## 1
Amino acid sequence: MKKIKVKYIFYSAILMALSCGPTLNKSSTYNNKSIETKVDSLMNLMTLEEKIGQLNQYNGFYDVTGPTPKEGQAALKYEHLKKGWVGSMLNVKGTNEVRTLQKIAVEQTRLGIPLIFGFDVIHGYKTISPIPLAEAASWDLVAIERSAAVAAEEASAVGINWTFAPMVDVARDPRWGRVMEGAGEDPYLGSRIATARIHGFQGDNFNSNTKVLACAKHFAAYAFAEAGRDYNTVDMSEENLQNLVFPPFKASVDAGVRTFMNSFNELNGIPATASSYLQRTVLKGDWGFNGFVVSDWGSMLEMVNHGYVSNNKEAAEKAIIAGSDMDMESYAYVEHLSALVKEGKVKEAIIDDAVRRVLRTKFELGLFQNPYKYCDEQHEKNTVGKKEFQDDVLDMAKKSMVLLKNDNQLLPLATSGKKIAVIGALANDKTSPLGSWRIGADDETAVSLIEGLSKFPNNTVTYTKGVDVAIGRTQFMWETKINQTDTSGFAAAIENAKNADIVLMMLGEHGLQTGEGRSRTDLGLPGLQQQLLEEVYKVNKNIVLLLSNGRPLTIPWAAENIPAILETWQLGTQSGNAIAQVLYGEYNPSGKLPMTFPRSVGQLPLYYNYKNTGRPSSNEPESVFWSHYIDQKNTPQYPFGFGLSYSKFEYSNLKLSADTFANTDKIQATVEVKNTGKYRGKEVVQLYIQDLVGSLTRPVKELKGFEMVELLPNESRTISFSIDKKMLEFFTANKKWETESGDFNLFIGTNSQETLKTKFHYTN
Ligand code: BGC
């Protein structure tokens, strides 16, 4: 009786107050009094255990995405759900499963507080977009936002209301397998893309059932794991954190992201999960974030292995005090927080703050109004895989490819009368293009290259595999084994190439060779593929190498010898169609690398915004005493921002409206860009700035702006960038974000190396 009454009063109050959802800009969420009042009234009804329950997240009944919990723990899930000791679940798929669990939360617990359902919708749910690194290569913020919106619409239709994306970790080391999940090496590009993705996932509000909570992860510095080995130690100065790692996280907060995830790594001796510097001082303090922070999978318990705490109880204590609001699969909060409060080790006010954050997002999502808002089976049927989504991911896939080389204009291909040999196991693979983190999609659901080419029937295409890349189980979460021995398919591939006008070789990494836990020390073409490439080259030099990979690779031999190279990454469901359309010139490649391609692994980490040193590489003196290797160049194979087109773009007339400015002023930088090629094409015009002298040494250049321009043959356009004080600021020796007076170089060009250059002076 009591239960019914409480629920009745509670729901009627909420229904009355919540006629429409809040909008997601910072000021409105901060001042959203009505939600705050509701949260307060609800919290007044809650026991300590029920509050702690809101901070507890369990894995669902699908595959785990981390180490499995201890025997017996998983069995407690249903029991805990019924007691109201669970606030969220992850890895639950489909409206049926979601509804079943939501029903327990809403109908069988004392207060009926709904669950939120999280899932790794990293680049699509069932209709898969290119991997995020590939999307970043498009530099097309509108397409990227659309791709996230498609993912949100599809995921929300199957009951999910929270994605663990975007990963906004700036990453400089391609040995780390998770570079595929982010936007590459640059904090500015990363910030712009983080903003686009968050807008795509969350929209302006959660009034409809097509938007999901986004999650900026992994806070912080996870990508700087020593030697690129996943989960490894990170040691980094505050200046680097602020200037390099934080910007995309800060941009995420400014874009209204509602959740953050912390990271597995330790940072300067403290696991990120227990870092109050990160979570309380910076995120919730300096940046005023009022959403909640979820731990990474088991990251509380892992603090025992880090040697930071001696048991899970101490882990719970440190993590909650440091500002980790929700525990993903460590069972630390549910098992120990109540005792910690009773023992006086954790103040209840700290628990209350965390619970308030979680409840706030549940109100924002509108779950109290309708807990089954995301459980409409008919909507699920009408939405998943719909045609419009296929068009959107195809569009994104075409925009994500990067043309690395095109000697003698081997591309685009003639549409008729040619004999084309296609070689490589990846060309006929319908799973690998889905890439890592596509856990809502079924195997064998991508369009293969062979299928894509078949839509252009006027050439003769003959396919031979040549060699396997991955052998054994290649499904989600399983380690792939690389073929190192079987060359039995070489002869047929060579024969195929001998008789062809053009050879398309699709080589690279299998889709599960990147992603979490997939660090590599050798970034060459895996297995026997390099050997096959060289053998085929002996009989036919007209090779177009289609690289398929989730991270920068080292391909010095191919870069030197193969006439045409197209970076196709892992492009998702529409992969084969997108590649075929680019090969045949229906889409003129416009992508630019979001990460440097090194010549060799020994150069790593290698990135464009490096610092000069006292003996810079630009001087290349005769003597040995300068910053270099004796066996390798300092320069990359392909620099950040690099990417060709079937057209050519010429830059001229770089001008500044004034060569000096102060404080509130602005100056304009203009440049003329002309399409001197035969095809209509798009170019990403890039603006870089170098602060010549700083209170802390400054990078040789930093990306500060970019603009995409589409030009017809012979057309030219003047592109203009506005330069202001804000653009020049950095985290200085005063430990503040400020702009220092001085001289600056300004560069505009087609990539981070090929630019026009001028200079200006700024005075505070
Ligand atoms: C990953 C996170 C992911 C989580 C849940 C962890 O292993 O680091 O990025 O969101 O699992 O699947």
## 2
Amino acid sequence: MLQKQKIDWESLGFGIYPTRSMWKSTSNSNGQWDEGGLIPYGNIEISPAAGVLNYGQGIFEGMKAHHSSKDRVVLFRPDMNAKRISRSCKRLCMPEIPEDYFMNAILEVVRDNIDFVPPYKMGGLYIRPVVWGTAPTLGVAPASEYTFIIYAAPVGPYFKNGIKPLNLIASQSYHRAAPKGIGNAKAIGNYSSTLLPVKEAKASGFDEVLYLRADNEQLVEEVGSANIFMLKGNQLVTPRLTGSILDGVTRDSVLKLAQDKLGLTIKESDLLLKDLFKADEVFCTGTAVVITPVGCITYNKKPYKINDGNMGKVSSQIRKLLISIQLEEEEDTLDWIHLI
Ligand code: COI
């Protein structure tokens, strides 16, 4: 039996819950990461002139550890996060993190905080690796020292209403990322730019913002905290990775499951907003949001209901299948599960 912290697991939302320890290591600009190790979870000292604080030289990852039906703790496709963190580091001019170094650090954090992993079916331990330029940097230039931290927090659902279909607004005022910018890196700046749009959307009664492409506003991009999919007939469509869209691990998993296990046709292509309004089903995907249906999209003050505002049958099927693989209820034929 895995020991657990005394936490009211049922009331967990998606927020910070302090755990026992976190990983910390540092690197010079030549990419030599030191041995690193676990330290108590808590505040760290940082120069006010740090590159990350002044010029946004920072990236992050998001992954989850689950207590599975086999009464053990498992990770879902951590190799995908390991590869993406290095791609993000490269784009932000930061030293890459070798895959085995990343995996070892993740395992140390999860093992040391294993009693914070929510019980089977009660959420997950959200793992947040971050890489920041931490040396003082007054002129705009890459920092001469970097810090790699991994902290974790037990979490429940990302949206406070769980999987109640989302009410989105397609933004005519803001873009999330620009062509040839940093949209496909998990850069901190991609998320700070969404704070005001989301605040305004929530004040008007929406749950989240659907961003349109900066180079063609007739096309859909992503939701900021998640990728977007549309089902029309037997075809599942998601925006192609143009360079300004994040290549989500859940996005990739849904495409594979839809094709291999559910016999759907999949298409990664430009996705017209007007086609989304006529979709049979729409849903968002991400590590944090898992698979969350979309019930309504408002554009130009006009609301377009999807599937009468309800979660669709196929969205439910894909969500169930993905979760059952993550929780080892379904055989892991795709080799996606990594034991702790
Ligand atoms: C995730 O799904 O892990 C993300 O990184 C989204 C996050 C901004 C909550």
